[in-house]
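Data card: per-record layout.
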Amino acid sequence: MPLKESHVTQARHAAAPAAAPQPADTAPTRRRRRRSRRHAVVFTVLLAVSVLMALPFVELLISSLRPANEMTSDTWLPSVLDWRNYADAVTVIPFGRFAGNSLILAGVNALLTTISSALVGYGFARLRAPGKNLLFGLLISTMMVPQIVTLIPTYLLFANFGLVGTYWPWVLWGSAGAPYAIFLYRQFFSSFPKELEEAAVIDGAGRIRIFVQIFLPLSRPLLVTAFILAFNAVWGDFIAPNLLLDQSNTTLAVGVGQGYVNDKGFPLPNLLAGGAVLYLIPVILLFLAAQRSYIRGFVNSGLK
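The structure for this 304-residue chain is written out next.
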């Protein structure tokens, strides 16, 4: 009898399913856990920074919809949403004319800056000349000079040539290129293989043809990046238009910054907030339309 029970017990143990093996705490598993924790920490930090950076814009949106009698209120949200602020912001100042001036000025300057910077960057990257590195270093060092330092000499220079009150200063600035855009182009064009140029030279192509037909088409993301940077620089500039232009042809930045005042000269903060929101829309739309090429331009530029 005991022998039979022993056989039955053994049979039951044999028929029972084997316990699932516990995963071993191996080195790859620990590395994946640490990587997951790092990703969670990085995501949390980036989310917190994004929220902090978005708060001023959210406050601007709320202020643009706040009634005039509640601009000094302690409450964060307005009691009612006053959409008339946007309509008044467009009618109190010649908003359309100022916006057209800004679009023309920023568009022409950005186009000229994009092409001229690409040409200069190509020269620094692909041509050989004595003192080229020294000249490039001097060019890059100009990025450390604040605009306020050269403001008065620039005004005197343009005034002597009779260019104050015209758009010619922006045309000249755009034709001279931008140091940061030249740096991006130089880094990008330096990564091209020499065989590409040698094959084009064998086919009888000159420097200009190589630049136009080979280098420019391959640098489309960087062209978009340089255009957006130059456009935003002119669109958001308040000092130069305020100094060099008059009221008839000034830009939207000056109009928004100085136009929203009442009969006694006191500012109208609700209209100023509404005008500022409308002022930001073209820049936001431009970035949303070209964000992929904009990001790809920085990635392909090879910042070394």
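Known properties of this structure: The chain is about 70% helix and 0% strand. The first helix runs from residue 2 to 15.

See the next section for split statistics.
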